[in-house]
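re: ur question from yesterday

yeah so i grabbed the chain u mentioned. its 267 aa long if i counted rite. heres the sequnce exactly as i have it in my notes:
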Amino acid sequence: MKIRYNNLLLLIIIFFSLNSHSSEVIIQSTTSTRDSGLYKYLLPKYPKYDSLVIKTIAVGTGQAIRNSKNCDGDLLIVHDEKREKQFMKQGYGIKRHILMYNDFIIVGPSNDPADIRKSLSPDEAFLKIYTKKSNFVSRADSSGTNAAEKKIWDAAKIDPRIFSGSWYFETGQGMGQSLNIAISLNAYTIVDRSTWIKFSNKQNHSVLFSNKKLMQNPYGLILINPDKCPDNNYLQAKLLFDWLSSESTKLLINDYTIANNQVFFTY
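ran it thru and got these structure tokens back, copy pasting raw so excuse formatting
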């Protein structure tokens, strides 16, 4: 009787474990999509939302990719095209869809000590910041925003890390913390527009350079390959992937606003 009872208990544990797994999908995500409030607006509109636990783990793009390679997620939403394509090429993703885009902006003290307002390109703006040795705050955290920043410095042919701690400050923190540090140091920084609109501690900082064409910021949605991660919830993740990439969801994304500003756009 004891053996039968133990076997029955084991079967019950296995059943509930499998049932729990089949009703949960984990999204490894960049922070800006969460911080913008998009998920709270969008995910409850998923038709299977009430019968599914959708967990979003919001970290920098680099960390989200590493977590997904470790099979700690079923879907991946990040914003670094180069690393997304590497992820796919290495076989970790089975499907990739450009979910939406917004743009990066350069913010700084409203008196604009480096005079970047009239710049014609982001690398010209960064060159002016370098020339004036004006304070600049970098996330320096392997995020998508950090990758975008590095591309601009490369285009300006400047390695700002040489000046780390003098006028170039590397926080190793998320966007919110880095913005707060930029405010306190009267510094420039780069941020995606949706995060800036949502950010409440602007004080005397404002948008000093923007160019939606040159600083476009696309977000990729990737379905994790079940061959790499056989224990993942592939079936439910694929259903959610298909819904997120549907035409009806594009309309929902385009309808999302912060303070009457549309912050994400679909192709």
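noticed a couple things. The CA atoms of residues 183 and 202 lie 7 Å apart. also The chain has eleven helices and eleven strands.
anyway ttyl
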